[in-house]
Design goal:
The chain is an all-alpha fold. It is 69% helix and 0% strand.
Length: 90
């Protein structure tokens, strides 16, 4: 999870397929959340507390969006529109 910026989709952030089920999203979210928790040995000395908090916030937003059918549908529409625009620019 090194790349966490506005260009990364929620699917990329959680490392799941756009076709992932709610249970797959939940599992990925919990794994990622544990990896970036303040008790995680993996990130203890590698990241500043502010950076970790930012990532956890992004994970929470991704999870809340992708597990809500209405929010996910709206997000997918926006994501697909953005991808079409990016393809036209390239």
């Amino acid at each position: 999870m090194s790349k966490t910026n506005s260009e990364e989709s929620y699917y990329q952030l959680l490392r799941v397929s756009p076709k992932a089920s709610v249970s797959e999203i939940t599992s990925a979210y919990l794994s990622a959340k544990n990896a970036f928790s303040k008790d995680s040995i993996a990130t203890y000395s590698l990241m500043a507390a502010e950076d970790t908090a930012d990532i956890l916030s992004q994970l929470e937003t991704a999870y809340m969006t992708l597990t809500n059918p209405d929010k996910r549908r709206d997000y997918d529409k926006r994501l697909n529109s953005a991808e079409i625009v990016n393809l036209e620019v390239a």
